[in-house]
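Support case: user asked for a sample of complex input and structure output to validate their parser. Sending the pair below.
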Amino acid sequence: MKIKQLPTGERLVKRYRLGRCFAAAWAADSTVEQLALDRERERGRETEREVKRLEQVAWHALATCPHVRTYEVGSPAGFTGSVAVWGQTDENRAAHGGVRVQEYCPTCRCSRAVNINMWSREVSPWTPDPEAIARES
Ligand SMILES: [Zn+2]
């Protein structure tokens, strides 16, 4: 059986220096990574704050907007159920069974779902449009 010889003197010092060098490089690497992560997280938080701010602006604009220049966005989808919200908009059963479209108001950046069946319409309340807000933030 061969006994492993322990490093001595100069060899030990060399190994120690190499180890420290690696440790320093690793620490520097992880610091850079950490900084990048922090920056990304901060950017995420800023975007979140901006989205919240724009949502509030949209809710304020919504209170006074007459929604005169609205248009449909996206493609029509099939009927999936009533879009009316009790206490805010009325249910219209005659509008059920047709298509559902999304109406958008660029003035207040709000949108609403509309069920359309022949000449009958059923609307949901206006709410800030998350897509329009995401585009701006
Ligand atoms: Zn509006």
